[in-house]
C-alpha cells in the first residue's frame, strides 16, 4: 500500500523525548500497515487534522499525553473526535493523572488509558493497541480518494458537471447534500454554505465552488484552449469520424486541432 493511502496513527506529547520513544515503538510495530504521524503541539495537531481530513485521509488511532501546556490531552481528544469520530482514543498518563483519565473514559468516550512508561512495549503497549486497531478495522471502509461532487440531486449545474466527468471517463463520487452526511461535513470543513453548491472537492484538498465545466476540465488535465494561433487542419467533433481524421492528419505531419464540445 502506498504510504499516503495508509490509515494514520496520530500521537501527541509535548515532551520531545517521550514522543520520540513513542514514535519509535509505533513505527517498529505498525509502519507496514499505518502511517505514523506525531506532534508536540496540540494546536498544530488540530490544524494538521483538518488538513488531513480535507485530503480524505483517515485516522485510526489517537494517542495523546494528558498534561500538555496548550490544552489537556482529554480536550485534544475531544476536539479530534469531532474531526475523526471513528478513530480510537488512548490517553497517555503519568501515575498522578489516573483520576483524570478515569473521569475522561466517560466524558470523551476514551477507549483506553496507558500508563507511562510502557516498557516493555511488547507487553504494555502493542497488545492493547492491537486490540483497538483490530476493532477499528472491523468498521473501516476505505474512503473514496478521487474527485467528489456535492450538490442537489435535481440541480442542472450538478448534472452538467457529473455528465462531463462521466463522459470523459474521470471517476468521481457524487454526494447528494440532502441524503449524505459527508457532503454537509465537507461543506463545514471548507467553510462553504449550500448556496455555493455544486462544489467539487479534489484529492489534494482544494475545491471549486459552483465551477464552470471549463474550470473543472482544466483541473483534470484537459486542454480547454487551443495552444497555437494557426493549425493546418481543424476538425470539429471527436466522434469516430473526427478521431480517425485527426489521427490521419497527425500521422501525415499536419498540425492538427481536434475540438470536441462534450467528450471524445
Ligand atoms: C443509440 C445509438 C446506438 C448506436 N450503436 C452503435 C453500435 O452498436 N455500433 C456501431 O457501429 N454504431 C452504432 N451507432 C452509430 C454510431 O454511434 C455512429 O455511426 C457514429 O458515432 C458516427 O460517428 P461520427 O464521428 O460521424 O459522429 P458522432 O459520433 O456523432 O460524433 C460527433 C461529435 O461531434 C461533437 N460535436 C457536435 N457539435 C459540435 C460542436 N459544435 N463543437 C464541438 N464538437 C461538436 C459531438 O459532441 C460528438 O462527439 C449507434 C448510434 C446511436 C445513436
Helix and strand content put the structural class at: alpha/beta
Helical stretch tally: 10
Q: Roughly how much helix do the residues carry, as a percent range?
A: 40-55%
Number of structurally distinct domains: 3
CATH class of the largest domain: Alpha Beta
What is the strand content?
Answer: 15-25%
Could you state the CATH homologous superfamily of the largest domain? Answer: Response regulator
Stated plainly, the CATH topology of the largest domain is called Rossmann fold
The ordered H/E elements are EHEHEHEHEHHEHEHEEHEHE
Low-confidence stretches: none
Strand count, sense and barrel status of the largest sheet are: 5 strands, parallel
CATH architecture of the largest domain: 3-Layer(aba) Sandwich
Report the principal-axis shape.
elongated
The radius of gyration is: 25 Å
N- to C-terminal distance: 33 Å
Question: Which ligands appear in the coordinates?
Answer: flavin-adenine dinucleotide
Average pLDDT level = 91
List the strand order in the largest sheet.
2-1-3-4-5
Task: Give the tally of β-strands.
Answer: 11
Written account of the structure:
There is one protein chain. By secondary structure, the chain is of the alpha/beta class. It folds into three domains: 137 residues, Response regulator (Rossmann fold); 73 residues, Glutaredoxin, CATH 3.40.30; 39 residues, no CATH class. It is 41% helix and 19% strand. It has ten helices and eleven strands. The strands form three sheets. It has a five-stranded parallel beta sheet, sandwiched between helices. The protein has a four-stranded mixed beta sheet with strand order 7-6-8-9, sandwiched between helices. The longest helix has 15 residues. The protein is elongated, with a radius of gyration of 25 Å. The mean pLDDT is 91. Flavin-adenine dinucleotide binds next to helix 10. The site of flavin-adenine dinucleotide has 11 residues, from helix 10.
Amino acid at each position: 500500500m502506498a504510504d499516503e493511502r495508509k490509515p494514520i496513527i496520530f500521537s501527541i506529547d509535548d515532551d520531545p523525548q517521550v514522543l520520540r520513544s513513542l514514535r519509535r515503538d509505533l513505527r517498529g510495530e505498525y509502519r507496514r500497515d499505518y502511517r505514523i504521524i506525531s506532534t508536540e503541539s496540540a494546536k498544530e495537531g488540530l490544524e494538521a487534522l483538518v488538513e488531513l481530513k480535507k485530503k480524505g485521509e483517515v485516522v485510526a488511532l489517537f494517542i495523546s499525553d494528558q498534561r500538555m501546556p496548550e490544552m489537556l490531552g482529554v480536550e485534544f481528544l475531544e476536539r479530534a473526535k469531532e474531526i475523526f469520530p471513528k478513530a480510537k482514543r488512548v490517553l497517555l498518563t503519568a501515575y498522578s493523572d489516573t483520576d483524570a483519565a478515569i473521569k475522561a473514559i466517560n466524558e470523551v468516550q476514551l477507549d483506553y488509558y496507558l500508563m507511562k512508561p510502557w516498557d516493555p512495549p511488547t507487553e504494555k503497549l502493542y497488545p492493547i493497541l492491537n486490540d483497538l486497531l483490530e476493532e477499528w478495522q472491523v468498521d473501516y471502509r476505505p474512503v473514496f480518494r478521487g474527485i467528489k461532487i456535492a450538490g442537489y440531486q435535481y440541480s442542472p449545474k450538478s448534472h452538467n458537471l457529473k455528465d462531463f466527468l462521466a463522459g470523459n471517463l474521470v471517476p468521481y463520487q457524487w454526494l447528494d447534500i440532502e441524503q449524505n452526511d459527508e457532503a454537509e461535513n465537507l461543506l463545514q470543513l471548507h467553510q462553504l454554505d449550500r448556496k455555493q453548491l455544486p462544489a467539487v472537492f479534489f484529492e489534494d484538498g482544494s475545491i471549486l465552488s459552483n465551477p464552470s465545466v471549463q474550470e473543472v476540465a482544466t483541473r483534470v488535465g484537459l486542454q480547454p484552449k487551443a495552444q497555437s494561433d494557426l493549425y493546418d487542419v481543424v476538425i470539429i467533433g471527436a466522434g469516430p469520424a473526427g478521431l480517425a481524421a485527426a489521427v490521419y492528419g497527425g500521422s501525415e505531419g499536419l498540425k492538427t486541432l481536434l475540438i470536441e464540445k462534450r467528450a471524445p
